[in-house]
């Protein structure tokens, strides 16, 4: 990446695994929406850090949703990981040395390593990761599924952060990748009534198949429909997964004392109806991603409890296809894509 909106695939030296590190051959990788927004120069979190890095020269940017095969391990790799293992990795690695990490608050680490952002990521044939972030992929899970596991882990974190209680009514605003995954997790979790609003007909259909009780067209009166479905009370939990502009709707649809989970990546100074949130005692949470949940997400996919394949509509081949994958993921509607465009680098079944 040489500047905002300016990225190309170029030759770089192969990475070498130092102490505690692993080199992974990337079998499949998909861009995240956040990466597409950052590449385009949108003023979301991490934009200023990226701008500062770009001022010093080209940045090897992006690639944290991937699956691959361990090529090499440096000294001190954790037990249970071997060369040849099929893996993915947790994208954020707390430093392990600062005051927050030592106090067992890794989410408060001020300088975590973030794959593809603080260093080179998996938009490459080989990626170097801290070996402790590797997660083994169970048999029967494809590289495409494993590359799509991070958003599912995020949805699981979201439901945990909201503490959805048995029978809670849940509204999911947005029927994109996160909306559909949240619908599936809600259906398999504690939620009672599951409501989803979305703009695209194809994605509303996916949300319906994922088990939503009430699927609404986002251009309609979502607030009225939610109030009607909840006896005029509002939803116990609202997942805001549609991007800027819908937080206001979330605040109107959540019940008094309810919870809004901020799933979308928002601009730095996105507005919020603070007085209403305060007056109604609404809790706003933003789940972090992280370890442990990846293993569970992979098991859910292996068992067929959650379907991530329904969101994979575009697959490209070879590392040269990365810019095209970014373009498709950035503008899914135009390309008729349901989720991120995946790039396949090699077939790990044939390699085995
Ligand atoms: Zn730390």
TrEMBL record:
Keyword Zinc-finger attached = no
Named cofactor requirement(s):
Zn(2+)
Q: What are the record keywords, sorted?
A: Metal-binding, Oxidoreductase, Zinc
Superkingdom as given in the UniProt entry: Bacteria
Q: Which residues form the signal peptide?
A: none
Every copy of the Alcohol dehydrogenase-like N-terminal domain together lies at 19-139
Q: Name one Pfam family in it.
A: ADH_N
List residues of the Alcohol dehydrogenase-like C-terminal domain: 179-302
List each coiled-coil range.
none
Q: Which residues cross the membrane?
A: none
So what family is this one in?
Belongs to the zinc-containing alcohol dehydrogenase family.
- Its recorded name reads 2,3-butanediol dehydrogenase
Q: Which organism is it from?
A: Dactylosporangium salmoneum
């Amino acid at each position: 990446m040489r500047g905002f909106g300016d990225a190309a695939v170029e030759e770089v030296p192969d990475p070498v695994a130092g102490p505690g590190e692993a080199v992974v051959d990337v079998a499949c990788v998909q861009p995240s929406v956040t990466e597409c927004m950052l590449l385009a120069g949108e003023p979301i979190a991490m934009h200023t850090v990226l701008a500062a890095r770009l001022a010093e020269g080209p940045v090897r940017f992006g690639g944290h949703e991937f699956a691959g095969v361990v090529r090499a391990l440096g000294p001190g790799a954790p037990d249970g990981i071997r060369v040849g293992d099929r893996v993915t990795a947790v994208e954020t690695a707390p430093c392990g040395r600062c005051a927050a990490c030592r106090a067992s608050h890794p989410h408060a680490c001020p300088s975590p390593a973030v794959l593809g952002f603080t260093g080179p990521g998996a938009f490459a044939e080989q990626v170097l990761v801290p070996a402790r972030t590797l997660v083994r992929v169970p048999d029967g899970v494809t590289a495409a599924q494993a590359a799509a596991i991070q958003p599912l882990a995020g949805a699981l974190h979201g439901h945990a952060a909201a503490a959805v209680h048995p029978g809670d009514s849940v509204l999911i605003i947005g029927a994109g990748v996160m909306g559909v995954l949240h619908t599936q997790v809600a259906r398999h979790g504690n939620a009672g009534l599951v409501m989803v609003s979305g703009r695209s007909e194809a994605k509303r259909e996916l949300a319906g198949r994922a088990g939503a009780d009430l699927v609404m067209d986002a251009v309609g009166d979502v607030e009225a429909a939610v109030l009607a479905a909840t006896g005029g009370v509002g939803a116990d939990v609202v997942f805001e997964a549609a991007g800027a502009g819908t937080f206001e709707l979330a605040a109107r649809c959540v019940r008094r004392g309810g919870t809004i989970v901020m799933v979308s990546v928002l601009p730095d100074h996105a507005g919020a109806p603070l007085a209403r949130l305060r007056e109604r005692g609404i809790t706003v949470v933003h789940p972090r991603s992280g370890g442990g949940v990846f293993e569970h997400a992979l098991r859910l996919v292996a068992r067929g409890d959650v379907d991530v394949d329904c969101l994979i509509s575009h697959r490209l081949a070879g590392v040269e296809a990365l810019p095209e994958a970014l373009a498709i993921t950035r503008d899914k509607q135009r390309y008729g894509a349901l989720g991120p465009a995946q790039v396949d680098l090699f077939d790990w079944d044939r390699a085995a």
